[in-house]
Design goal:
The chain is mostly helical. The protein has eleven helices and no strands. The two termini are about 15 Å apart. The mean pLDDT is about 85.
Length: about 250
């Protein structure tokens, strides 16, 4: 079976699921609105509004949480039954798990790019102005990392339930050290130093540098860190995934 056809098949399975569509389109805007409204009195002095700050951080958080969509795309029971024939088709095991990862990533790329454009040009959230394309790329990189994490845990744990039960732990660690909800520097030098292990920290810091300082000094490094994290996850998928355990 043609790899492109498998990816298309998996992508159509995602968009037929209304909950997955809502989580990856409407929910991010709701999160930005709620967090921006609740904290708006804390951002009255500077040029950065609460909606600007949480617009960036909530998009990064959402992009990382695409891992949950990836586990559903890969291991949800009805999806597994429908994809059972792929296991017995003349395709490599790489194509099986990679098609799930790529179809989820395509959804993330489309959804989050549209949200960023709406946020900037309709809701006046600062996503970089003329540099918005660079912010889109950063969000796409962390989305790829999220898709890779979700797929990796499915390959390791062999079930959607098992993957979802464990996946929140590393995600919350990345989010905590990434400073998405509050700056980790306030917790001391040791915590701040540890935070640089998190790809989310690099993506977040880079995004704010680009948006407010037009500073691209760590842009390439942030992209490379996100890509390396994704590649490591994919390599683990290649090692741990066994097609016979997929059915």
């Amino acid at each position: 079976m043609n790899f492109i056809k498998i990816v298309k098949f998996d992508f159509m399975n995602i968009i037929r699921n209304p909950m997955l569509l809502i989580v990856n389109t409407v929910l991010p805007l709701i999160m930005i609105g709620i967090m921006g409204f609740v904290t708006k009195n804390s951002y009255t002095a500077g040029s950065v509004s609460s909606y600007d700050y949480y617009g960036v951080t909530m998009m990064i958080f959402t992009a990382l949480m695409i891992a949950i969509t990836a586990t559903n795309t890969f291991m949800e029971e009805t999806v597994k039954r429908g994809n059972g024939r792929i296991v017995f088709a003349p395709v490599s095991k790489t194509e099986i798990y990679l098609s799930k990862l790529l179809s989820t990533y395509i959804l993330a790329t489309i959804s989050y790019s549209v949200i960023l454009l709406l946020g900037q040009f309709v809701f006046n959230i600062n996503f970089g102005g003329k540099n918005i394309v660079y912010i889109m790329l950063l969000i796409n990189i962390i989305s790829l990392f999220g898709c890779s994490i979700g797929t990796m845990f499915c390959c390791i744990l062999k079930s959607e339930e098992g993957a979802n039960a464990v996946i929140n732990i590393p995600i919350m660690v990345f989010v905590f050290f990434g400073g998405l909800f509050f700056p980790v520097a306030s917790l001391g030098k040791v915590v701040e130093t540890i935070s640089y292990v998190s790809p989310v920290k690099w993506i977040t810091e880079c995004a704010f540098k680009v948006i407010y300082d037009n500073d691209f000094s760590i842009y390439l490094l942030a992209v490379i860190i996100g890509l390396v994290g994704s590649i490591v996850c994919i390599l683990i998928c290649q090692i741990t995934f066994k097609p016979e355990e997929y059915v």
